[in-house]
Design brief:
The chain is an alpha+beta fold and 198 residues long. It is 33% helix and 11% strand. The protein is built from seven helices and six strands, in the order αβαββαβαββααα. A hairpin with a 2-residue loop joins strand 2 and strand 3. The radius of gyration is 18 Å and the shape is globular. The structure holds iron/sulfur cluster (2 copies).
């Protein structure tokens, strides 16, 4: 996703613009100040998101004091996951001889790093992973997080035990697995891996 240009990011996130729950919006305009894409306007004292301009970055969601901005948790998220790996695949094909992937499994917060705020880690720090395979390293990362003991001070609701799916516990409407399945299907890498600890 990071390698996509602005038009690419728009295409990636198209159909995932959040929406404003009218009954909760006070028209305070805080969300307008946080949107870098001028995608929110005030109409009849209520915020309205202009879908054609919205890139789906979600920056407006946590800043709304009324909790009035909501994500559309529907099948469109699977489409975003697929498009994300397809963009990665295009870049990977051009540069794979020069690519090494590094995942830092430290300070693992419950939400995406594009949010303007962070939250308490959901599991203790695990370490740093290296791989030449972008799919294997992500699969290993998911597995290591889910195998870890969940932290009771985090947003986890009940998946504290080792082996329980921490991501589905926090985001029950978003399944992470289609992204890795699609990545493997199109040849970006393999979900099989051997973990060598050093
Ligand atoms: S921040 Fe929330 S309450 Fe304020 S205008 Fe935006 S949607 Fe409405
Ligand atoms: S999701 Fe991002 S681009 Fe869309 S309205 Fe919110 S802040 Fe603006």
């Amino acid at each position: 996703m990071g390698c996509a240009n602005r038009e690419g990011k728009l295409s990636l996130h198209s159909n995932v613009a959040p929406y404003v729950q009218k009954r909760n919006c006070t028209g305070c305009q805080i969300c307008l100040r946080w949107c870098n894409y001028q995608a929110i306007v005030i109409k009849d004292k209520i915020a309205v998101i202009i879908e054609e301009k919205c890139v789906g970055c979600a920056a407006c969601i946590p800043v709304c004091p009324e909790g009035a901005i909501k994500n559309r948790w529907d099948a469109s998220y699977e489409d975003v996951q697929k498009r994300t790996v397809e963009y990665a695949f295009a870049v990977f094909n051009e540069k794979k001889e020069k690519m090494l992937f590094i995942n830092f499994l430290t300070n693992i917060s419950p939400a995406c790093d594009c949010y303007s705020t962070s939250d308490a880690p959901i599991v203790p720090d695990i370490g740093i992973l290296l791989s030449y395979d972008p799919v294997a390293i992500d699969q290993a990362s998911v597995d290591l997080v889910n195998k870890a003991q969940g932290l009771r001070t985090s947003r986890l609701k009940k998946a504290f035990g080792p082996g329980q799916d921490k991501f589905k516990d926090i985001w029950p409407d978003v399944d992470w697995e289609p992204q890795l399945q699609h990545a493997e299907k199109i040849g970006l890498g393999t979900r099989e891996y051997e973990l060598i600890r050093i």
